TrEMBL record:
<protein>
    <submittedName>
        <fullName>3-oxoacid CoA-transferase subunit A</fullName>
    </submittedName>
</protein>
<dbReference type="InterPro" id="IPR037171">
    <property type="entry name" value="NagB/RpiA_transferase-like"/>
</dbReference>
<dbReference type="Pfam" id="PF01144">
    <property type="entry name" value="CoA_trans"/>
</dbReference>
<comment type="similarity">
    <text>Belongs to the 3-oxoacid CoA-transferase subunit A family.</text>
</comment>
<dbReference type="InterPro" id="IPR004165">
    <property type="entry name" value="CoA_trans_fam_I"/>
</dbReference>
<dbReference type="InterPro" id="IPR012792">
    <property type="entry name" value="3-oxoacid_CoA-transf_A"/>
</dbReference>
<dbReference type="InterPro" id="IPR004163">
    <property type="entry name" value="CoA_transf_BS"/>
</dbReference>
<keyword id="KW-0808">Transferase</keyword>
């Protein structure tokens, strides 16, 4: 059943210590900053976070990592010019990293939402990322077996929702949101606007409401800091 909540703090209240949390966004595009900041206030710790990268600057996911609340991150792009918060934690041995090639990351999340038990991919075959994993030769090419990534919660940012939880996104802010909503047991979504059921054109709905558990409207979103 969909819960339409009054504020982001109420939305993240169910997240518990040790949970696996998927966080949408590609860098700053589509990052649910308000939900992340609410999670920072909420206090859950020892989190495993699944995200495309490991935070930018000192806000959003980087702030959560900096506060020592993330014990492990699963991502494809941990280091960049402004990833100093993650860098410091990793060098100090205070956070575990599982590095996953970006396509594999997306497909492992999608597989969880689709109920697929795993898949073979040529990506990472013959590299350290394939160590300890099943490999197979298929039509003369090496493949690695990858398993789905499931999560207890997903924090997702969409543009607009109706009152049954159907979602549409803004351009590239769509990125990981749809597959994360499907892969998590509990999808928590912030949107700029909630409209009445029937107002969204069915042809443009990306995430069906069946995947959304909690919905909160954030009309005045925090502008991302300059890179």
């Amino acid at each position: 059943m969909l819960n339409i909540l009054q504020d982001v703090d109420e939305a993240v209240a169910p997240i518990y210590d040790g949970a696996t949390v998927m966080i949408g966004g590609f860098g700053k595009a589509g990052q649910p900053v308000e939900l992340i900041e609410a999670l920072l206030r909420q206090g859950a710790k020892d989190l495993t976070v699944v995200n495309n990268n490991a935070g930018n600057g000192e806000e959003g996911l980087a702030a959560l990592i900096g506060a020592g609340r993330v014990s492990k991150i699963i991502c494809s792009f941990p280091r960049q010019s402004d990833s100093h918060v993650f860098d410091a934690k990793f060098r100090a041995g205070e956070i575990e990293l599982e590095l996953v090639p970006q396509g594999n990351l997306a497909e492992r999340i999608r597989a969880a939402g689709a109920g697929i038990g795993g898949f073979f991919t040529p990506t990472a075959y013959g590299t350290p990322l394939a160590e300890g994993k099943e490999t197979r030769m298929i039509d003369g090419r090496g493949y690695v077996f990858e398993t789905p990534i499931h999560a207890d919660f997903a924090l997702v940012k969409a543009l607009k929702a109706d009152r049954t939880g159907n979602l549409i996104y803004r351009k590239t802010a769509r990125n990981f949101g749809p597959i994360m909503a499907a892969a998590a047991k509990n999808a928590i979504v912030q949107v700029r606007e909630i409209v009445e059921t029937g107002e969204l054109d069915p042809e443009i709905i990306v995430t069906p409401g069946i995947y959304v558990n909690s919905l909160v409207q954030v009309s005045r979103e925090k502008a991302p800091a300059a890179a």
